[in-house]
Amino acid sequence: MKNIIFILLSFSIIFESFAAVTGAGRGSLGASLDKEDISTGIEGTYVANAKTHSNELEVFFDFEKVFDDGRVAPVSGHSYQYNSAYVNTVIDHKYSTASPYLNWQSTAQYYYDLDSLNSVPQSWALLTGPKYTKNIRPDIALDLQVQKAKQLDNQYLSDETSGVVNLSKKINSRIVIAGEFERYCTDYDDNDVIDSCSNETSGEISVNLGSGNYRIRIGSFVVHDEAYPTYEVDYDYKLNRSNQLFLRYGKKNNSIRNNVLTRTSSLPPDPATFTTSLIGRYLYDFKRIKVLMEVKSTETENDTSLIQQQRYSAQADYRLLTNRCRGCLLHLSFDRDNNEVSNWHSTSLGIDIPWIKEFYNQFAIRYTNNENSGSFYSLVWIINYNGRPSILSR
């Protein structure tokens, strides 16, 4: 907690040197009645941005605390989870030099889990280094980036040095091809963990067909003289203004650069750790009806461990235009979660009712089925706040 206060204080001083600082936040305070038990919770998110002619800075902060038994997490809307209490801060900084091709980029992340089962509940990462971008010709672009990183993840402290070279060429107005070479070297403070250097070479093609965008990347990751395939396939299709479909499937290596914005995993350090993921999203938004369906499945593994997680959700919203409840929104949602610590599904029916300015109330009735806890109904009441961007200082 002292580290968080120090980070926020340091950047509040930096903010004062910027011409203008803007910020926006949102938060929720909720309670739910589950049988005879009442659960309460609170959560919030805040984002601040600052920019001058040579500096860009963004600070993202979020937290969550579910009290009591936490079987029903009221602050997370229509979902179910166990006790949760964490704070998370991410800071991105970009410094533009006198050269239009060269800048310096840094990222810092700090996460603290107040209810962690691990002996060290905190994780953090620091990345910094220069990036050089130049169009060699109107159709050819070169990107060079070198980074130095340090991370505490799952009780292991490590130093990482990485370099990336990316060369891309526009075939025409719709097709871009690219080649990339990346090298990572990781040094752990723990003598029981083997240090390593790895190389990844990949090729990519992106196609824009107006209503659809496609991207395919195929690579080879080499570590300890053994090669592993990596790949990514993206499909983003917009049929019209009302229908949109997005699919992504891929397998990538877990480096600090890829993990800095995610929670730490329970896998021991291993450079040959890969995550295979499938993400699907369908959105229908027309007049007063909005339907969103999502699926996310991940599998993280190395030679000794395997973690599997799946999440499925669907939500339909209907906006009311009656004189007595203008701006009210009806919700019907379904969620299913399957991971290491929980396996549940829930269905809920709720309504959003505007209150004052940026505040609104959310009421819902929810049915939840859990493998360990059985089935139960709950009543949920949430007070939500969606703040508008405001100027913090000039």
- Please identify the structural class as seen in this structure: mainly beta
The whole-number mean of residue pLDDT values reads 85
The main β sheet shows up as:
20 strands, antiparallel, barrel
Distance between the termini: 29 Å
Molecular shape = globular
Determine the strand fraction and express it as a percent band.
over 45%
Question: Please, how many helices?
Answer: 2
Question: What oligomeric assembly is this protein in?
Answer: single chain
Q: What letter string, H or E per element, gives the SSE order?
A: HEEEEEEEEEEEEEHEEEEEEEE
What is the radius of gyration?
Answer: 23 Å
Extract low-pLDDT stretches. Answer: none
**Fraction of residues in helices?**
under 10%
Number of strands: 21
Describe the structure.
With 394 residues, this protein is mainly β. The chain is built from two helices and 21 strands. It has a 20-stranded antiparallel β-barrel. The protein is globular and about 60 Å long. The two termini are 29 Å apart.
Nutshell version of this structure?
The protein is built from two helices and 21 strands. The protein has 394 residues and is mainly beta.
Topology:
Layout: H1 2-15, E1 21-34, E2 37-51, E3 55-66, E4 85-96, E5 102-113, E6 122-137, E7 140-153, E8 156-170, E9 175-188, E10 196-208, E11 212-223, E12 226-238, E13 243-253, H2 256-259, E14 274-286, E15 289-301, E16 306-319, E17 329-338, E18 343-354, E19 359-370, E20 374-386, E21 390-393
Antiparallel strand pairs: 1-2, 1-20, 1-21, 2-3, 3-4, 4-5, 5-6, 6-7, 7-8, 8-9, 9-10, 10-11, 11-12, 12-13, 13-14, 14-15, 15-16, 16-17, 17-18, 18-19, 19-20
